[in-house]
Amino acid sequence: MTTNRTTVEDLRTTLVDQLIHEGVLTDSAWREVFATVHRGIFVPYFFLPCRGRPGWRLIEGDDEWRHGVYVDEALVIQLNGDDNAAQAARWGQTVEGVPTSSSSAPGLMAAMLHSLEVTQGMTVLEVGTGSGYNAALLAARLSDKAVTSIELDPALAQRARIALTTAGYRPTVVAGDGAAGYSPNARYDRVIATVALPRVPVAYLEQTHPGSLILIPLSFAGRGGLMALLRRDQAGAASGAFLAQYGGFMAVRSVTEPATPKIRPQLLDAAYPTQVPPDALTDIHPAAFYLSLCCPYRYRTVGFTPDDNSTGLQTWGQATDGSTFGLTTIDGTTYVAADGPLWDTLETAYAQWRALGQPSRDRFGVTANPARQWVWLDHPDHVITELGEL
After folding, report:
1. 188: left (phi > 0), else alpha (psi -120 to 50), else beta?
2. What CATH number did the domain enclosing 291 receive?
């Protein structure tokens, strides 16, 4: 036991040192909090993809678990909204499905917490309790009574309560719809969401007061990694720019996900050259966020190189409206063929982004009031797109 405890302490110290070196833990108070709160208490196990076959494997209580918990990476802690998946894996069953909850990468959490600019005496609403680790960091910094955390999944909420109590923290943890906030403890000085939403819930405007900050990942077309930091004004609206940092979060469960793209090699017979690089569709390219802003449908992509080497990398996409497209790169030129309006939208958006001078994500922002919400470039009057219903 002594050896394991020493190993965990060393690993946690190494992680904190790394975050300091990378410039995401610049505040001495947050450095102390990250050095004190044990992530391992909140992530007693996690899932990794199986090697060479479909499914997931459970990582729990061994050296791989210890080293995995104390690295700057997001960890999947639930599959298919089913807390029984871990038990099935312990019995040797193959566990398949999609991630429905994760513990965010500590570096991303640190960056978000820094941007909240909290001070003692403030109250915070956290949306998306998940493992409870972020709620513990907030409670360690501000006190238990200052923190309210809401989680849609009752089982996850209960797991988080137990972990928080084990770690010595007792913030308010509520099972419910995060988009509705939690009015009994309002009004809040800060709101931080760790789940992606399609627009700013009006409840966050109603449950804060003038000067409050709202930090919320916004999911456009299911990608982009955009995080908006809004300040509430006297009139009940909020406005602010996207953070420069990429922040990929799972979408709220009410959002419909697109189907896995269909691979249709014959579609490429009608392919034509395109200026849109394949990585602009996968969040790697600096234009990826802008394409997501302009696309009215969520879409999914999959990329691979054919076994027969008949072409280079292929990227296939499909949206919730049924639109599909296929890209292939041959001798440095990318070709595309498509069914439905999705590709025209993406190609137009890429051309617009270049025409605007290839602006970075932090030049864009969001303004939200009870009647209307929109995304803008450089100033709220320069509207890029309107946001629809939640």
Report:
1. beta
2. 3.30.160
Query: d(Cα 308, Cα 107) in Å, to the nearest integer?
Result: 41
Taking the chain, what is the end-to-end CA distance rounded to the nearest angstrom?
A: 49
277-298 per-position pLDDT tens digit: 998 988 889 999 999 999 888 8
Burial of 63 (0-12, 13-18, 19+ CB in 10 A): exposed
Q: Per-residue pLDDT averaged across 218-244, rounded?
A: 92
* H-run or E-run covering 134: helix 133-142
Three-class SS of residue 254? coil
**Number of folded domains that form the chain:** 1
Joined together, the tokens standing for residue 220 give: 């456009």
Q: Is residue 310 part of a domain?
A: yes
* Residue 331 within a domain: yes
Across the beta sheet with 333-339, what order do the strands follow? 272-273, 333-339, 324-330, 314-319, 299-304
At 9 the pLDDT is: 87
Of 102, 104, 149, 292, the active-site residue reads: 104
pLDDT surpassing 80 at residue 2: no
Q: Please, which residues bridge with residue 47 across strands?
A: 58, 76
Residue 289: domain span: 265-355
**Residue whose pair of structure tokens reads 């569709």 in the numeric block:** 281
Is position 285 within any domain? yes
* Residue 18, SS3 per DSSP: helix
Q: With bands split at pLDDT 50, 70 and 90, how would you rate the model's confidence at 309?
A: low
Among 32-36, 37-41, 100-104, 278-282, where is mean pLDDT lowest? 278-282
Token match 């960056």: residue? Answer: 111
Summary mean pLDDT of the chain: 91
Adjacency order of strands within the sheet including 383-386: 172-175, 147-151, 124-127, 188-193, 208-220, 223-232, 238-241, 364-368, 373-377, 383-386
Domain contains 142: no
Q: What tokens appear for 184 in the block?
A: 């009994």
pLDDT tens digits, residue range 88-97?
888 877 788 8
Catalytic, 101? Answer no
More confident of the two residues 258 and 233? 233
Contacts of 295 (CB under 8 A, 6+ apart): 220, 221, 319, 342, 345, 346, 349
